[in-house]
Amino acid sequence: SIQVMTKDGAYDVNVDSELRFRLHELLPKSYRKVFVITDSTVGPLYLDDVLTELRKVSEVDYSIVPAGEGSKSSRFYFNLMTEIINAGLDRDSLIVALGGGMIGDLAGFVASTYMRGIDFIQMPTTILAHDSSVGGKVAINHPEGKNLIGSFYQPKAVLYDVDTLHTLPLREIRSGYAEIVKHSLIHPTPFWDQLKSLNLNQPLDNERLVSDLINGIHVKREIVQQDEFEQNVRQYLNFGHTLGHAIEAERGYGHITHGEAVAIGMLFALRVSEQHFNIQLPFDELYRWFKQNNYPFDVSDLSVTRLITRMKKDKKAKNSAIQMVLLKQLGECTSVRLEDNDVTLWLETFMRELV
Ligand code: NAD
Ligand code: ZN
């Protein structure tokens, strides 16, 4: 397992198959009461296994929220609070987040605020959640913006059962792998070479999954350990996200997955890095890989002007800078302020060549 150090102590990230059948041995300590939070897609698949294990050692309750980003809201947050109050959870109880990043963020935020914080563990069931389950950010959304209500709150453990990933729809596999690709590009561990041969259209292989997830988690861990509260290097994790977030918002959440949007954003960040630093990066190689794995690139109908507006720090200012994470070389990030006129030109060209 991988150990993550934080200001409030360390926790283990365990990545393996069949973990859900060894759950009661893997709990960081014994708890009188455990409350599992999951969603309506993951629940029918894995909740029974988890409850059966936990009941060997604790009194167990659970709640199932609707699958989808809509549940990361104040309404479901407050409903869950009511349920755990009624279930009698106290400071010595545990919350288990069983699901993808949505459940991890929601259940984590519940745990971080209930009675000023009770223990929680993450049981990620998506590939993307290798990213969201490590680093201690938990949040719910506000209608004015994503993740606006949240905190830094560390889990007591992350138990990643890779068997659960075999039921993921292909677009969620793509979404998660885009973040693994990101981790392979922003850190001087040369594991992009290892990803190149992967074909996401074939069934996932457990050994391969464990290795790719662990590589990704190692990069994320190193960055968040250096900068737990996002004051400097943690922003490098935003590689590909400046345009990615803009595309996600313009297209409408749900119409393109987060990772699919970030894949396009990373290609653009590579292009801009090449132009800005006058260097050569493996743009073509990455482009081919995304293409072979059927990442959607149909964004030519989106307005460059609107995307640029979304990418600006100050969205109301006429001329304001765009902050982007670029690569000085493979594995070396830097954050750069760019003129929006330059970015506009680059984006127009990029959108034309992206077919
Ligand atoms: P998600 O949790 O919504 O899962 C995506 C879809 O897959 C959902 O419909 C879910 O029901 C389904 N699903 C989950 N596991 C499954 C399984 N094993 N088999 C079949 N279907 C399954 O989304 P996500 O992509 O995992 O995460 C996105 C969320 O994570 C966003 O809310 C984002 O803001 C958040 N996030 C947080 C951080 C962080 O640092 N906290 C980082 C990145 C993303
Ligand atoms: Zn992301």
Automatic annotation (TrEMBL):
It catalyses: 7-phospho-2-dehydro-3-deoxy-D-arabino-heptonate = 3-dehydroquinate + phosphate. CDD domains: DHQS (cd08195). It comes from Pelagirhabdus alkalitolerans. Residues 176-317 form the 3-dehydroquinate synthase C-terminal domain. InterPro entries: Dehydroquinate_synthase, DHQ_synth_AroB, DHQ_synth_fam, DHQS/DOIS_N, DHQS_C. Binds 1 divalent metal cation per subunit. Can use either Co(2+) or Zn(2+). One of its GO terms (biological process) is aromatic amino acid family biosynthetic process. This is 3-dehydroquinate synthase.
